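Posting this for the archive.
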Amino acid sequence: MGATGASIQAGVVHGGVHVELPKGSIAVAQRQLPLAVSVFVDRRSHLATLDSFTSPHDEKAPKVTVSAITGAPGVGKTALAVHWAHRARSHYVDGDLYIDLRGYGPGPRVEPGQALGALLLSLQVPPDRIPPDIDGRAALYRSVLTGKRMLILVDNAASADQVRPLLPGSSACLTIVTSRNALPGLVAREGATRMVLEVLSLSESLALLRRIIGDERIDSDPEAAERLVALCAHLPLALRIAAERVTGRPHAGLAEFVAELENERERLDALEVEDDELSDIRAVFAASYHNLDPAAARLFRLAGLHPGREIGLHACAALADLTVPTTRRLLERLSRTHLLTVTETGRYRFHDLLRLYALERAEQDEAEQERELALRRLTNWYLHTADNGHRVVLPSFHTVPLPEMTGAGVPLSFTGVDEAMRWFEDERGNLVDVLQAAVERGQHDLAWRLPAVMYGFFELRGHWTQWRDIHLLGLKAARALGDDLGQACNLLGLGDANWLLKRSDEAWECYRSAVEVARRCADGWIEGFALRQLGVLLIERQRPDEALALTEQALSAFRAAGEQRGTGMALLTLGDSHRKLGQSAQAIRCHQDAVEVFRGIGDEWSTAWGLCALGETVAETGRWTESLDHYAHALATFRAFGNRRNELRALIGLAEAHAALGRIEESRDHYRVAAELIEELGDEQTADLRRRLPGHDADGPARSPLSPGGSG
């Protein structure tokens, strides 16, 4: 019999120890919840879910005894749990218990046996009655809680094994667990519900700032306020630290704090709190990082080197020089601890502050040589994968020699155009970021090649300004190496991008320089296309005689190089020149020959280009039925490639042909779809096509929208 008068009856224990308090003894309800945060915003859906666990009225609702709140470090898991527990504690008449397991953070981790000892003491079990072994303590703990209605908050757990012994056996108790780990074992075995806490929304982030620093300072500079929450990655802990800094300097404007956070290299320093590791962003992140096994920690820091916002599984494997299955397991480990987030498309992403921390760890824990090798493996993987996709989309395009792949990374291959184009759209931002990083790090041999193997992707999807940007980077890299082939490739691409952007003078200089450099390195493909594009520019400038002469030179260069697709494209431009000179029969013959060349090499996209040109030329001679057929075939191909602007050109050609044949309803239908597509595209590149819509008046000559140009 202990000091409390509790009688412990134990023989051979099967399933529990029963603790009875004698009549007349006073059981003091424990109220151990820590102080709730003074400012708490929203999280309404999460609070509503937690509220549903305590509802005594809904008999049909499943009985929840364990709920896990998981999420990234600093996202506000403990704040939510404590805030809700204070709201709900009146439902738990026998009290509430709180224990911090210190799974992540300063100080040694609390082992389950230690935690049980502390909880039993809180439940007024005398120290001399607490069993020495963990199984005995767990059994006694469950027995003491039998028949009680209590709320137990288990904070900062590292794993399911650390939590499992602390779970009551009574269905009248509710255990709330917070963890950076997803705790899949607790969900699978104990049937725990799990809610994942994400960073705050923009409105929630601003509301938190308002509650701490006041409306006046937010309203005085709303743009700075929005930038401040973005730089804090909408992370509640970071926002609270920033807000504390703001309140500590009442006469400073928000823009001053924004300026301090803009520098990525110093942002984590700006969110540091002296003498309080629990409120220091870097320390909070470090606790999770140091809890990783060596392989996962290495992948975490190497992933921080990736220049883009998201990374795919295979790219990550190449970066880390690991097999795909091994990389997948490690990424799953990082996502379970919320150091990485899995996107809806199955890719992986840091929030901005964690990305900065991962990069910081890479610079501290990886030798510079290994960082360079990792980034080279990554860039080379993107290069080879883009090249594989480009060969599927434009099989007859110019090829450039690529460096061999090194390490365990394997580039992706593609079974069709749709798959390759989807990959490109998913990775487009990363491709540009990786190219920029390669130039900055002096990996020029990879950098000049990347634009050369992404040419068609950017042209076909109409990302012309970005296309121009990547060729400027590629040209910079090629010039740094003094590589003629690299310069010629990028001068040609830069010329095409400028041409499509209607920067014709710049395009002319790029093509002229490309001819000179291509002749130095004896590349007939580039020489031919640059000459052919000079011919296109001359046609636009109403100088078809000169265009004809230059395009004949291009045709000779292509034939000397055995370049079939280039031959077809030169024939198209020859046809355009003849048409401008009023020589319809020669124009039609050239366009027909071009289409036959494209079909002979199986180039579907170029065939569609040729059919558009042929459709316009035969229409001028009144052969509208033939024109209709050419446009219809071209439209189907452009749609298959997702090539919206050329789809628009084919639609307008079809509408004009239907109108000429007296098929007014069909013509109106095609014009309507074309008008909708023009509005959807909504850029000045469709201006030449707008002029062809009924009722649209425009002054001045326009480039023939069906005159195919560019080497893509």
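Residues 1-26, 697-708 have pLDDT under 50 and may be disordered. The longest strand covers residues 151-157.
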